[in-house]
Records
---
Amino acid sequence: AVVSTQSTGLRYLKSGGDTSSSPEKMLPVTVYYPTTESIAVSKLITLPDKAETLALPVPSHYLLECFLHQGAYEVLFSTVPKSHPILQLECYFSLGESVNTISASLQNLPSLTKEFGGLILYFSAQRLRSLQLRNLKFISGAKLCLIARDREELREEIVRLDLEDSWRFRFRDEFKTASKDSPIYFLTGTYV
């Protein structure tokens, strides 16, 4: 699969020789991130310790979104039956048309009675407790994607949420976005 999206941002540039900073006297300027349309989805992420990686001049959050939208099914959730949705807590990512998802806040956790095929935790809210997580039901072989700012935070969250009790992790399942500045890290695991 190849990413075929391009993101734009809107910034303002002062018009003429005007030195004021009032928005009325500023012209909108569209800022384009370099296109990733010729880059394979697998190049949007990399192993954290890999020395020779393609460092893209694109915000890491954008690369993560592109990867999850284009590659989440193939890389993470291809073995999960569509009848068991992927739970996204306190976040939402488009995982493509092949992945059934439910996005929920922590306040709604007591009302969730389904068996889930996976879980995405994005910069885990400190309000999430291990007991809340243990009350959720997952099918055997469900997939977890834990996303954090750095590798240390990944490990802290695994310990804080007692994820090792029910999820199996391997170091080769740890990735980071292939961005030049401040990559985002994520670790995948399997429910046992």
---
Amino acid sequence: MSVTSETPLEPPAPEPEPEDNTYMIRPNFQQKFRAVAVKECIHSVLVDELSEKTYNTEEATEWTKKISDTIKERLKDMQYDRYRFIVQVVIGEQRGEGVKMGCRCFWDSDTDNYAQDIFMNDSMFCVAAAFGVFYY
């Protein structure tokens, strides 16, 4: 005679429901990259970071890194789902000379966009640009 312990059988775990297809080729209208709102964001960061400063060659590199990181974090807080951000910041000494900047991008003009803002005081200028590219 053999002795076996009987354990109550547990019902099988339910199978997970299939998720909806998340493949989107266009953002929702509410989630579209808004250049005006992004420009305001960039402007507030530039004013907060640079309004009390004078140009310093040694510190300019750190300022550009801090400003670009701050802009990128604020863009992420704006809930642009499925967007990837590229932020470029240039700081230079104000000497009364002209500066020209340009960029070229290969993107979808229906979904991708950019915004930029310029900060100037007596000793320096700063140009910040943020590019939002929709991730398919």
---
Amino acid sequence: RKESSQSSSSSQQQETETSSSPDQSKKGSLPSQPNDVMPYDTAMPSNNDTVQDPMPYDAQEQDESNSLQREVALLAATVQNDLESVQQVEARMTEITALLSRFSELMTEQLDIALIHQAAEKSKQNVDKGQDHLVDAAERVRQSRHYMATVIT
């Protein structure tokens, strides 16, 4: 049995040596035939190689894409807030304009009322002066009566 196991192991070694070409025995070399599969360890960097990029390219690209999407969302939210603020300011300005128009109307009405009040005051003064003139005229009439004229009548 020992002989048969030794002979089978030596035949396996020979098959391995004959089936692999000298180019394929090197680590990291490309397969000679297009259908040959590269060994797994050729795709991975060796321990001696320094890797600058800890993330694969796709993960970095995905992270950058996520970062840009967050930035776009933040900018969109900022623009939306600014738009709402501008709309609030616009509404306040419209309200202020309406209040100023109403104030102007009230000032015009108040001016009219002031003119009417001045005219009423002047009329009152004229009535008071007219009454004073009537009192003076009545007094003069009383003083100008002759005693003799009253007896004759």
---
Amino acid sequence: MMLPFFEVKVLLEGGSCVVSPDIKEIQTSINRAANAVLKSTKNVTKWVKGTTQTFYDWVAKDKEIVKVILLLTGSIEGTKNKVETFLAGFKEFEWLWKLDIVKTQQEVSAKAMSNESYEKELKKLMDTENKINKIPKSVQIGATHVLCVD
């Protein structure tokens, strides 16, 4: 397994889980970096049989280099889909951060709950906590390290 090249954090933002920086930002940065490297080769020349030729011409003709650049710029798309699938796993717990705690406390206090009902609700919350605790603190998806922060 390759070492991660990027790190993103899973954050709760605006009522949903997102990664920061956004995958699109990473893609834009990769594209800009690849572009900068390619453009820089236009200023470097080499002598070929009495004439000068830029490294850009040589790089543009080398199929392996072009292939690596295309793989680099396109690699994030597959990662993006896998990260979105990972984030979708948090939807199950969405009710936790959308819950109005004060209102819920008032409703529970107003009810005359039996011990059995109270234990049933408590068990549901404990089951939810166990599911949350089983979520890995970090995962590697492609060349991206996804870190879940508290």
